[in-house]
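Appendix C reproduces, verbatim, an entry submitted by the partner laboratory led by Prof. M.T., so that reviewers can inspect both the input and the predicted structure.
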Amino acid sequence: MNKDILLQIAINFIKELLEFFGDSEVRTLAEIEDEISRIMKAFIRELIKAYFELADEAILKDKTSRKERGLVVERREDK
């Protein structure tokens, strides 16, 4: 699995959090919760998407194991 992709997603997440908290704007607790929730959900979505894309690549490349397990690639390049 390409850890660089996952690391970049984590770095982007941390940068976004630092930008949010580095802003001098005074926010209510509700505003903070809403924005942190949005940032977290986007991070989790990107992380899961990257994980499955990497898993798909690994499965596609491992033709021998795929055949042994009876797995068949039905569609490629679905997004």
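The two ends are 19 Å apart (CA to CA). Additional entries are available on request from the coordinating office.
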